[in-house]
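Q: Predict the assembly, please.
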Amino acid sequence: MEYFDTLIVILQSTVRVSVPLILAALAGLYSERAGIFDIGLEGKMLAAAFAGGAAASVYGSALVGLGAAVFVSVCLALVHGFASITQRGNQIVSGVAINFIALGATVILGQAWFRQGGRTPQLGEGERFTTVELPFAAELADVPILGSIYSNLLSGHFLLTYFAFALVPFTWWVLYRTRFGLRLRAVGENPGAVDTAGISVIWLRYRAVICCGILCGIAGAYLSMAMTAGFVKGMTAGKGFIALAALIFAKWKPVNVMFACLLFGFLDAMSIRMQGNALPIVGEVPVQFMQALPYILTVILLAGFIGKAIPPRAGGVPYVKER
Amino acid sequence: MSVPYAKLPAWVDYGLIPLINLAVAFAVAGLVVLAVGESPVRAAGLMIQGAFGYGEGIGFTLYYATNFIFTGLAVAVAFHCGLFNIGGEGQAYVAGLGVALPCLWLDQFAPWYLVFLAAIVGSALAGAAWALIPGWLQAKRGSHVVITTIMFNFIASSLMVYVLVDVLKPAGSMAPQTRAFAESGQLPRLDWMFSWAGVDMGGAPFNLSFLLALVMAGVVWAVIWRTRLGYEIRTMGHSPRAAAYAGIRQSRIIIITMMMSGALAGMMALNPIMGDQHRMQLDFVGGAGFVGIAVALMGRSHPVGIVPAAILFGMLYQGGAEISFEMPQISRDMITIIQGLVILFAGALENMFRPAITAFFATLGGARADKSIAAAE
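A: Predicted assembly structure:
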C-alpha cells in the first residue's frame, strides 16, 4: 500500500509538470505540421508567463492575465510568421532570436515595472488559477485503489490541466477530420499542391502560426499563474525545448505527443523524487542523468534507433510561387 | 525561376545592408530603453565610455571579444556548409575539460607554454568530439543537426554539473569548481600591448588567447577560401546536389565541418579558464556560444566581419556592465535583447530592406542614365 501511495504521488506530479509540455508541444505541432519549424516555443512560453503574471497582478484577475499571456505570445508568433512566411527568412534563426528577445525582455521589463529582481509580485486569491475538485472526490477517497486514483490523481487539478488533456483528442479531430486540418497537413508536405488548389499558402501558414501562439500563451499562463503564483526569471528552464523534443519523439502526432510529454514529465517527477534515494537494482543514479534523459532519448530516437522520426517534408522551406 | 533580387554593388551588399539591419536592431533596443524610462542616447554614451573610455574597460572589451571570435568562427564555419550549429555553448562547456584536465595534470612541473599547447589540443579535441556525434548523426542517420545540437547543449550542461560536483571538486570544498591552477596553468596577460599604446590595462584579464583567436580567424579564412576542403565545404553549402554530382563525399564533409566548428567553439574555453579564473567553474561559458550566432550573422560568416562583430559584442558586454551601475533598470539582460534583435534583423529579416534599397539604386541608376542621354543630346 505504501508503494501504491508513492506511485500516486509521483503520477500526480507527473500530470502537473506534463501540462505545459503538452500545451507547448501541441502548439509546435500546429506550426510544424504547416511547414513552419518553431524552436521559439521556449521564448513564447516565457514571454507569456511574464505577461500573464504581470497582468494578473496589476489588474487582479486571472482571466485578464490569461488574455495578456495569449496576446503577447501571439504577437511573438506573428513576428516569427512575418520573418519566415512573408520575408522567407531562416525559420531556425528567427526562432533563436525570439528566444533571446523573450529571455532578456522579461527580466528588463519585470525589473523596471515591479523592482523585485525580475519577479512579478506574488499572486493572491483570485489572481491565479485554483484547483477544482471533481464531484464526490472527498466521499470516494476511502475506497481502496480506485478511490485513491479518482480523488488524488484525477481530481484536484486546474481547469487548464483538463483543458490541456482535452486538447489532445480535439487536435487529433482538427488535424484528421476537418478541412482545415487536411489543408494544414498538406501545406506542410506539399505547399505547391495546396496553391494549385487555389488555397492561400500564406494565410494558411499564418493561421497555423497563430494557433501555435495561442497554445504557447496558455502554456506560459499555466506556468506563472497555476503551477506557481507569479513569474520568476527564466522560469521555463528549457521546457520549450523538452516540448520540442517530445514533439519529435511523438513523430508529430497528437496522441503520441501526449504520451511523450507524460513520459518526459514522469522522468522529471522521478528525478525530483529520487534525489538522494537509491534505486533497487542500479543503485543511486545521478540526478543529472535523469535530467538529461529526455534529451538523450530524443537523440537516440532521431538517430533512427527506435523507429524513425520523419518531419513534414516542406518543413523549414519558405514557399516561393513559381515566377 | 528567376533570381529573387537584382544584383547590387558589393559595398551595398556587404556594407550598407548589414549596417542598416544593425541600425534597426539597435533602434528597437533603444525603444526598450525608452520603455524602461531611461534615455537611449545617454545609455549609448555610457556604454561607449565604459567599453572604450579607459584602459581597463578596453581590456575587458577585448577579453569578452576573444570568446566571441572563437564562437562566431565556429558558427560561421558550419554556416558555410549549410549547417546551423547551435551547439557552440555545449561544445565550449565540454571543452572546458580539455583545458582543465591538462592544467590540473601538468601545472606542477611543466612550463606554461607546454600546458598552453596541451590545453589548445585538449580543448579542440573535446569540442570536436562533442560536435562529432551530431555531425555523424546528421551525415549518416539523417537527424537534423539543429535539434541534436540543442539536445547536446542540455546534455553537456547536465554532464558538466555532474563532473564538477561529483568528480573534480576538491575534497572539503563546497563550491562546484576545480582547484586553482598553479602559475603555469595561467596564460600571460597582454599588458605589453597596452603599454605600447601608453594605456594602463588595470585588472582586465585580457590575455594571450586573444592572439590565438586572431590566428584562428586567419586559419579559418585560409581553409575556407584557399583549400580544396574549403571549396568542397562551400559547394555543399550552396548546393548539396551539385556537390553530390561533383563527387564530393557529403557525409565526410559534414562530419569534418562539424568537428572544425566544435573545435573552434571548444577553444573558447581557454580564455575564461586559463586566462581569467585559473580554475574551471560552473557555467563558465555564460552564453558565449549563443552570442556566436549573432556574431556570425552580423559578420556575414567572414573572419573580416566576425572580428569587428565580436568586438562590438565585447563592447556590449563590458559597456553593459558599466551602464547597470548608472542605470540600475538596465541590467546585463539588455544585452540578451540586443543579441536577439541582431539575430532577428541581421539573420531572419536579412532581406527586409533589400527590395526598397534595390528600387532606390534602380531609380538612381535610371536618373544617371537619363542624364547621360540628355548630355549626349
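Chain B has a mean pLDDT of 87. Chain B touches chain A through 51 residues (CB under 8 Å).
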